[in-house]
Amino acid sequence: MRHSVSTRIGGVDISGPFNAGEAVHAGGITTVEGSAFCLSGAEGNITPGAAHGLFLDDARVLSRWELAVDGLTPLSVRQPAAFQARFVSRRAPDLLVCRDRLVGDGMSETISVDNVGDAADVRLDLAVAADFADLFAVKEGRAAGAAHASVEGDALVLRGRGRHVSVSATGEPELTTEGLTWRVHLPARSRWEAEVTVGTGRPFDRTRPARRLEAWLAGNTRITAEDPALAEVLRRTESDLGALRIDGPRPYVAAGAPWFMTLFGRDSLLTAWMALPLDPGLALGTLRTLAESQGTRVDPATEEEPGRIMHELRRGPDSAALLGGERYYGTADATPLFVMLLAQAWRWGVAEDAVRALLPAADAALSWVDGHGDFVTYRRATDRGLANQGWKDSPDAVNHADGRLATGPIALCEVQGYAYAAWLARAELAEAFGEDPTRHRARAEALRTRFAERFWLPRHGWYAVALDGDGAPVDALTSNTAHCLWTGIATDEHAATLVARLSEPDMDTGYGLRTLASTMGAHNPMSYHNGSVWPHDTAIAVAGLMRYAHLPGAVDLAHRLAVGLLDAATAFGGRLPELYCGLPRTEFAPPVPFPTSCSPQAWASAAPLLVVRALLGLEPHVPHGTVTTDPRLPAHWGEITLTGRGIGTVTAGGRCEHGQDRPG
Questions:
Q1: DSSP state letters, 192-254
Q2: Where in this chain does the record put each Putative glycogen debranching enzyme N-terminal domain (predicted)?
Q3: From its phi and psi, is residue 416 left (phi > 0), alpha (psi between -120 and 50) or beta?
């Protein structure tokens, strides 16, 4: 049964699925710290009418932040950390203008002017405005009204929709309701600077972001790599995950900047899984936070159901109208992923009492899985819900080989794999804690048998991406099938055929695995989910291939994908974006960026950790006091060393027995 919900906010039509697919093109530079982020142009300005802004708690608290100096020409931008940026510009012939931005619990920007010539008079105007628009409104390109501005003492105060920010500065600026102005006389070869602070009612601590990151890194597993490119990518991984980390008694990682700086069930769970070698505490914090918000009732507006793990948390001013509350539950995969991660967290050393405390949530999650019958399916409950509720959640993401869209309810192949692994995970915990694992193992094996019978397409040599509402296979070749290798639901016979098929050029771009084969009807290498490359998706494929390393071609393909992914990261400055275009490396090198890709993005940032773990064959079992490895690293990577609590020190050197491991 489908339900209707209101589709207007403040007279604005918001009909259609919320937060689905790609956003408007914002471009520019993103600085991020915790749940705060700033999105600006490459010169540092937040421009009205663009999807720019300073965002706190899912609301845009600055919609304009434009520095004007006559004749200013942007020169460069540098980001030493995710929460910092330096914008450098020149006013000919002798003035260098720098803007050093730092985002935290608000924002600080130090504006400096270096005069390398004769004495000069300079006027600097900083135009400031706010609209307190909801993040969804900005993401979707919807307009919002201006906030009320007033000068109060030595600060410009902006108010609207129950929120406020204040802007204050050193350097004795002139304050108006439209911004700040400095009139500066610069003697020859002199320097002037002023610090501008955007506050939210709490003192802004410039040192906090760096101290917070340093404290987190100090407690993490130390990972070193001999290969300089891999070392730089891993360094950026740690820095970005630290910046995306939401502090508190139950820390977790936000999904990604700019549009997903909040808890996402699927994204945060998979990121925590990938980050286990770095910090198992993220897994525990994520699990505890999601368990607290686990569904307890049936609510069509939010798609809450008993036992269901939520999709996303939002605190913006429009959240109640858009979501029916702060939480939306429309996801098919987060619930089994929750159970999978719980068992992994236990293996990686999370305390037994903490794991035991989460068993009721795991059992409620499996009851939700079991309630679907043969396979976990989804169909949105209202027209505002997500039409597709797997990780490929854009409206056109699930389609047949001829390009036709699948009709629901839909059973995704990877979600069945997650359910299979969840039953086995709960069986492992049951056995460890003195319970009977028989029922859970029986559920897993029965599902594996049904899956092989219904999803395998023998004439094609791959798993159907889904079963549609009539139970018929949706026969497109997609990267989703590689997730079936990762979870182990694939039989060896099917896996051997699938490995060979995934190795073909219509799937392997040279920089990662396509989401949809180039031979399929809906393929578009510049689309969001129908032919692009998502680093986390390719990393899961690498882990799946290494699970079946005993099969011909599996390690070869894992090496090609891993090396291609690392080369892509290097091309993007050491940071893997959310996705990039799925164009062949033989024709397009370096990889072509996707214009609205999030960066930094949590599971893309964590993807190198999963790749390293998979190629090391690293499987700790802290409760049993064991760490096993089966390293099969690309030869040119050299040595990789991990040192941390629970695993001690693990060092492995590359050995390649499968020919060339770097694409040409």
A1: EEEEEEEESSS---TTHHHHHHHHHHHTSPEEEESSHHHHHHHHHHHHHHHHHEEPSSS-EE-
A2: 33-196
A3: alpha
409 preceded by a cis bond (ω within 30 of 0): yes
Residues 612 and 615: their CA atoms lie apart, in Å, by 5
Q: What integer pLDDT is reported at residue 323 of this predicted model?
A: 59
Q: Are strands 190-199 and 106-115 parallel, antiparallel or unpaired?
A: antiparallel
**Exposure class string for 144-155: b at 16+ Cβ within 10 A, else e:** beebebeeeeeb
Give the DSSP letter string of 596-651: T--SSBHHHHHHHHHHHHHHHT-EEEGGGTEEE------GGG--EEEEETTTEEEE
Q: At what angle do helices 413-432 and 334-347 cross, to 10 degrees?
A: 40
Contact 55, 49 (CB under 8 A): no
Q: ω before 280 within 30° of 0 (cis)?
A: no
Residue the block writes with tokens 């894992």: 558
CB atoms within 10 A of CB 453: 8
Per-residue confidence (pLDDT) for residue 321, from 0 to 100:
59
Measure Cα distances from 167 to 36, 109, 180, 277 in Å. Answer: 16, 11, 9, 41
Residue 243 near residue 32, CB atoms below 8 Å = yes
The three-state secondary structure class of 578 is coil
Given this model, what pLDDT does residue 57 score? Answer: 84
Strand order in the sheet with 648-652: 222-225, 640-644, 648-652
Residue with tokens 């019978």: 453
The predicted pLDDT at position 3 comes to 45
Gap between the Cα atoms of 195 and 60, Å rounded:
21
CB burial of residue 640 (10 Å; 0-12, 13-18, 19+):
buried
Element holding 29 (H helix, E strand) = strand 29-33
* Per-residue tokens: 39: 């999105």
For residue 283, CA distances in Å to 42, 245, 255, 263, 339 come to: 35, 12, 14, 13, 11
Q: Which of 176, 235, 245, 156 is nearest to 209 (CA)?
A: 245
Q: Specify the CATH number of the domain 31-210.
A: 2.70.98.40
Q: Which candidate, 88, 50, 53, 84, places its Cα nearest to that of 69?
A: 88
Residue pair 49/60 in contact (Cβ under 8 Å)? The answer is: no
* Cα–Cα distance for residue pair 210/447, rounded to 1 Å: 48
Pairing of strands 12-13, 411-412: unpaired
pLDDT of residue 105: 85
Residue 278 CA to chain centroid, in angstroms? 17
Residue 372 gets the label, from left (phi > 0), alpha (psi -120 to 50) or beta, of: alpha
Q: Across the strands, what pairs with 102?
A: 84, 108
Task: Give me the pLDDT at residue 322, please.
Answer: 60
* Beta strands 163-169 and 95-104, pairing class: unpaired
How far is 156 from 141, CA to CA, in rounded Å?
Answer: 27
pLDDT of residue 426: 98
Domain definitions of the chain by residue range: 31-210
Task: Determine the Cα–Cα distance for residues 421 and 544; give it in Å rounded to an integer.
Answer: 13
Angle, alpha carbons 462-466-470 (nearest 5°): 125
Length of the chain: 664
Looking at residue 319, what is its pLDDT? 58
pLDDT on residue 585: 98
Q: Residue 658's pLDDT is what?
A: 33
